[in-house]
Amino acid sequence: MNGENKMGLKSKIKNLFAQKEYLPISHPISSVKEFEGKVVLISGGSGGIGLAIAKSLLESGAFVIIAGTNEKKLDKIRKDISVDTVIMNYSRPDTFKDVIGRVTEKYGRLDIFISSAGVHTENVNFWTMNPEEFNRVMDINLKGVFFACQSVGKYMIDNNIKGSILLISSSRGSEPAWSPYGLSKWGLKGLTEGLGQMFIPYGINVNSIAPGSTATDLIGIKEGDSITSNENGMNRLIMPDEVATLAKLLVSDAGKMIDGEVVHIAAGRGTFDIR
Predict the structure, then answer these.
(1) Is CB count within 10 Å lower at the N or C end of the chain?
(2) Is 22 designated active site?
(3) pLDDT tens digits, one per residue of 38-58
């Protein structure tokens, strides 16, 4: 074997071991149940980021209701972590008032709404994008979020609840966009700032989290898969627990003075790392 081949082999071995590195991800659990008695509705909470947030808030004493469209997934979640579930379809804004009514009828109130539902663009070619695919993404990622916030905001204002609304967006919302997915996240950025301004007189704070590529099923990552990635300068994917820790701060009393903000957790993507 010549020297050049030896160097190539050494490089491959080095990369192999680099991808097997284990990274400790912090998952803080407060000894004080700071969300004791709080009622939280999480849309898109049956997997990925939404599920990580649900588990974190449960550990902190909250009553958590997970909303989604997949009844099988919701049944499994209900058994696995002992939460209530409800069907909430972002393509059916006319049902949102009834969803909130079911939650408040059982728990007496709704303090926190977290919108984690969303879909990716299946066809990312600008030139072949069709209206059906464009509308599918925008209806869920932007239109559905808009009307969910409208329904929740009206409930909180009418019932004098100084609650919190948190939208799970993406760092793509701060980068040049030509796909429906990217455009929808730009829309959430504007919506966050607008609702923050609109709701602050009522004591309701509204924020967004903009994660970079996160290790979830949405991008095909399963438990045990490598999280090595060239998507950001840290060379790894964001973990759902990291997003959950930030989410818990933003909907807590400690985060009440954070309002109308899009908070990035993306190792620079969407701020100084624009692609």
Answers:
(1) N
(2) no
(3) 999 999 988 889 999 999 999
Q: How far apart are alpha carbons 272 and 275 in whole angstroms?
A: 10
Q: How many residues does the chain have?
A: 275
- Chain mean pLDDT for the chain: 88
Helix 71-81 × helix 48-59 angle, to 10°: 30
24 assigned to some structural domain: no
| Spatial CB neighbours of 46, under 8 Å, sequence gap ≥ 6 | 66, 68, 70, 73, 74, 76, 77, 85
Q: What is the largest CA-CA distance in the chain?
A: 77
Question: What's the number of domains the chain is made of?
Answer: 1
User: Choosing from 22, 107, 181, 202, which is the catalytic residue?
Assistant: 181
Residue 17 covered by a domain: no
Residue 272 lies in a domain: no
Q: Residue 151 and residue 154: Cα distance in Å, rounded?
A: 5
Segments forming the whole domain that contains residue 165: 29-265
CATH number at residue 161: 3.40.50.720
Tens digit of pLDDT for each residue in 148-194? Answer: 999 999 999 999 999 999 999 999 899 999 999 999 999 999 999 99
